């Protein structure tokens, strides 16, 4: 956690009711809500003079947050990163590929560790394996009217504009493929805050019988899917690694039997490959 002194000069004042700790890395005050009569949130309480006697340590379950050392035992029982009972749709390594010992190298090493000769041999193998494949990808940068107002908001910074353009392009491509419609379930992989599903829902307006399943392996703050209360849309969030996700055991999918549309914006290359395998599996209700 990169932060500086609680109240540096020339930075203004924190918002009323919010933490007074200045986060140097983000060049702003912490935005967490503080308890009545407190100046700092629980995460930064160690900065307050009256709290200096108590020591905060990294949570052993998730080092992204801290906890008072004398309250560790109590915290571990309610921490969002604690081990929980596995749901029916959790099947260990169901999407991890084959585990035949003859196919697993004795030792996996990063590509950067390979010698020049080993790298050359690897390149030859890849070229041979990809012979005859159409490897030329055509850019399909599109947009969608659902994001018109958001894209033209003068308050947008460079980062917000970039993400909005990406989301608009994804929606445009979904519509071009005739996948943007009623009576289906959208599964957003690597959902994060759920903004892609949010815009899909906006684009569908009052389409009937639309379900959203947002898959994310970590706890996420500032989620937007919780704000949706439309009669025709149902949002469900699953905290699970896609490596262990069995789609056809998700109650909503097995009950409704709706066609499934897989969407995603924040997936890495490996995860994208895994999603391809999941979506094309024969036991899925529909695609």
Automatic annotation (TrEMBL):
Q: Which PROSITE patterns match?
A: ZF_CHHC_U11_48K (PS51800)
A Pfam family this chain is assigned to: TRM13
Q: Which UniProt keywords apply?
A: Metal-binding, Methyltransferase, S-adenosyl-L-methionine, Transferase, tRNA processing, Zinc, Zinc-finger
| One BP annotation, GO | tRNA methylation
Domain CHHC U11-48K-type, first and last residues per copy: 56-83
Entry EC number(s):
2.1.1.225
Query: Quick check: keyword Methyltransferase in the entry?
Result: yes
Q: Report the catalytic activity.
A: cytidine(4) in tRNA(Gly)(GCC) + S-adenosyl-L-methionine = 2'-O-methylcytidine(4) in tRNA(Gly)(GCC) + S-adenosyl-L-homocysteine + H(+); adenosine(4) in tRNA(His) + S-adenosyl-L-methionine = 2'-O-methyladenosine(4) in tRNA(His) + S-adenosyl-L-homocysteine + H(+); cytidine(4) in tRNA(Pro) + S-adenosyl-L-methionine = 2'-O-methylcytidine(4) in tRNA(Pro) + S-adenosyl-L-homocysteine + H(+)
| Statement: the UniProt record of this protein carries the keyword Kinase | no
Q: Which domain of life is it from?
A: Eukaryota
Q: Which GO terms describe its molecular function?
A: tRNA 2'-O-methyltransferase activity; zinc ion binding
As for what it does, the entry says: tRNA methylase which 2'-O-methylates cytidine(4) in tRNA(Pro) and tRNA(Gly)(GCC), and adenosine(4) in tRNA(His).
Family membership: Belongs to the methyltransferase TRM13 family.
The protein here is known as tRNA:m(4)X modification enzyme TRM13
Species name: Physeter macrocephalus (Sperm whale)
